[in-house]
Write a structure and sequence with these properties.
With 432 residues, the chain is mainly α. The chain is 76% helix and 0% strand. It is built from 20 helices and no strands.
């Protein structure tokens, strides 16, 4: 077991001596702009999970059915996600350990192994959603059958993961590039839709229009935080740059706040754009029943043109490929952290993608599959959020970077809201 940093145990650690080059100083010496950019990246990898194919389905359905009514839901969900991902990044910076490693350090072994089992189930459900999304995109773009599209997705994901073996920066840049493709795709579609800005402004005010809008809002909010990226974000910041002394730790944390604000802000903007496009295009023209990704693609093609439909499909493909690769990397973090075991990344990719390929090969309905995967993901939320808030509120672990009381109160409130909404979503899904 690796001991936590001395700073995280309350000890005073001397700052680096003047003239001594540390990893952080070496990066900052690149210049004002390049030095800052070099410190950003982990949050962009995590942000991919917030624009996965499951988000496509819920955001488009929300805009088509209720117009701009649920804009406020996406904004609120994004603010919650920012806090959660910031706390995850903070955990890695303050302790030098990932969240799964901290669970292994502080929980009994049976509890740790139980957490690992549920986390592996979450990893498989995550892969299912991402593979299905990428397969739908390849089918829309090139007419590739679902199973063959799944195999193509696997090959491309292997290529993206190979970058991770050459250093964290190449992997981060590749994922950020795919995130940019998703953004540009929806920006193109946004430019071809007439937005009723007064309706958009009214959508920022909380409100509902009947029980169905409440249920859809719960679906958007309840699926906000993805447990696998909560685990992964802490791992990305725990060993990426080793700070020397408490002052460097605080400085690094400031840049992580910037990283989270930019990356999660971009993810939130993409999600709002999805809903606005659906509201302006479908709801605004009386096409309120668009409840599938394929239906949205067909509607874009018919109402706007082939260019908009192409941009949508390319964005979906980039979303599926990037989130699939991130999910596999998160699975490795989970296994190594909870049970201190590590298998080759490519072997893990082959194991976790097998259920997804089986589902595609059996010809399961893609939209139904996406819903089921989101329900499974809901089960994992408490097991990630509760330890996260508990650890970041511990002065013994976090040292001088421990949460302020207000931050801890907000974190527990957010955790309670997300867990409660997921429970409600499960009850509605299974009819308990």
């Amino acid at each position: 077991m690796n001991p936590p940093p001395a700073e995280a145990m309350g000890a005073v650690v001397a700052p680096p001596l003047p003239g001594v080059e540390t990893p952080l100083r070496r990066l900052r010496a690149r210049g004002r702009l390049r030095g800052v950019v070099a410190l950003l990246g982990p949050a962009f990898v995590a942000a991919v999970a917030y624009i996965d194919p499951g988000n496509f389905a819920t955001n488009i359905a929300g805009g088509a059915r209720f117009g701009y009514l649920l804009v406020w839901v996406i904004v609120a969900a994004n603010l919650m996600a920012m806090l959660v991902q910031y706390l995850s990044a903070k955990t890695g910076v303050a302790t030098g350990r990932s969240l799964p490693e901290l669970c292994r350090d502080h929980f009994p072994r049976p509890v740790t192994w139980g957490l690992w089992v549920q986390a592996e189930a979450i990893a498989i459900a995550t892969d299912l959603a991402e593979f299905v999304g990428a397969a739908i995109a390849l089918n829309l773009l090139f007419g590739v059958p679902p199973f063959a599209a799944g195999l193509i997705t696997a090959v491309v994901a292997f290529g993206i993961l190979a970058l991770q073996t050459r250093g964290y920066r190449r992997f981060e840049l590749a994922i950020t590039g795919l995130l940019a493709i998703v953004f540009l795709g929806f920006l193109y579609d946004f430019a071809h839709v007439d937005v009723a800005w007064d309706g958009f402004a009214s959508g920022l005010v909380p409100g509902f229009a009947g029980a169905n809008s409440v249920l859809l809002a719960v679906g958007i909010l309840g699926a906000t935080v993805m447990p696998h990226v909560v685990y992964m974000h802490s791992a990305l910041t725990s060993n990426r740059i080793a700070p020397v002394g408490d002052a460097e730790r605080r400085e690094l944390l400031r840049y992580q706040r910037v990283d989270v604000a930019i990356a999660m802000g971009l993810a939130g903007l993409i999600n709002v754009t999805m809903l606005v496009v659906a509201a302006g295009l479908f709801h605004g023209r009386g096409h309120s029943v668009v409840d599938s990704i394929e239906g949205a693609h067909a509607g874009l093609s018919a109402l706007v043109g082939g260019g908009a439909a192409l941009a949508f499909a390319i964005a979906l493909m980039a979303s599926g490929l990037s989130s699939s690769s991130v999910g596999t990397f998160a699975g490795q973090v989970v296994m190594q952290g909870f049970i201190n075991r590590r298998i080759p990344l490519f072997a893990r990719r082959a194991v976790t993608m097998a259920p997804s390929l089986l589902v595609l090969g059996l010809g399961a309905d893609p939209s139904t599959t996406l819903v089921i995967s989101q329900v499974v993901l809901s089960f994992g939320i408490p097991f990630a959020l509760v330890p996260l808030v508990r650890f970041t509120a511990s002065r013994e672990l976090m040292g001088r970077l421990v949460n302020r009381r207000l931050t801890t109160a907000a974190a527990w409130a957010v955790a309670a809201v997300i867990i409660g909404l997921n429970i409600f979503l499960l009850v509605q899904t299974f009819g308990f």
